[in-house]
Amino acid sequence: MQTNIFSRQPPSFRSFIIAVITCLVVLFFDWRMPHVVQPARNLLYTLYNPIYTVASYPVMSREWLSQQTKSEDQLRRENTAMQAELLQAQVRLQKLSELSAENTRLRGLLDTPLIIDGRMEIAEVIGTDTDPLKHIIVINRGTADHLRQGQVVLDDKGIMGQIIDVYPHNARVLLLSDKESSLSVRIERTGMRAIVSGSGDLGHLKMQYVPTSADLVVGDNIYSSGLGEHFPAGYLVGRVSKIQRQNSGEFAQIEITPAAQLAGGHYVVVLFSDSLAKEQPYAHR
């Protein structure tokens, strides 16, 4: 009788038992003595690496061929898309930087030692006066927020100006640099009083009617004196930046650099306190 070469004999039960026992022994050694089995495992992994590499060749070859067969138009479209994504990311980064800077400025306003007793209102600069010769800014607070004419406006560095007009939802602030602006000040180092006026330049103020013999040096801090009760006492106005003493003149020409950011401030503080000349009687002495 001819033997069927395709017939399969059932595996021997003895071989199955031996295989199971061998597996259990290997598992036991791997559990109890992993340092014995680990070298063999490392050797097997090393032998498998060429197989993994050969098996990955079809996929890598297909990707390489697809990259090589891309048309010039496809490459240009991809380049344009990547440039657009890069531009969007740069714009988002600029916005995040601006938000971080605004957060820092707001923290500076809230933490500034210039604010007393918490009587303040934070406002945002929303515009400037249409007259280029006027140094007037517009803030987004008005009578609806209980603002009134004559209130002092400052930032975290010093005095910016004073409210001159109030409307329901906005107000106009005359900056210290305007030619029509002036206030009484006190030199911190000597206590001498003087008048500081606007020069028409956002970066410079001028101190008027100071004798050439006055004890004044570059770098002196200038504070509001409270005289006249238009500006409260004790707030930084600026620093002396230039002194010109002429032998023929009776008064010196003195330039003051304003402490506040008159040209670039975005958020400001409106004071609600009464004039510090009333709160500090020594300001009149």
TrEMBL record:
TM region(s), chain numbering: 12-31
- Keyword Transmembrane helix recorded: yes
Q: Please provide the Gene Ontology terms (biological process) for this protein.
A: regulation of cell shape
Question: Looking at the keywords, is Transmembrane helix present?
Answer: yes
CC per GO annotation: plasma membrane
Recite the UniProt keywords alphabetically.
Answer: Cell shape, Coiled coil, Membrane, Transmembrane, Transmembrane helix
**Matches recorded under InterPro entries:** Cell/Rod_1, Cell/Rod_MreC_2, MreC, MreC_beta-barrel_core
Note the coiled coil stretches, chain numbering: 65-99
Q: Where is the Rod shape-determining protein MreC beta-barrel core domain?
A: 125-271
Fetch the NCBIfam families from UniProt.
Answer: mreC (TIGR00219)
Q: What does this protein do?
A: Involved in formation and maintenance of cell shape.
Instruction: Give the family, as the similarity comment puts it.
Output: Belongs to the MreC family.
The molecule here is called: Cell shape-determining protein MreC
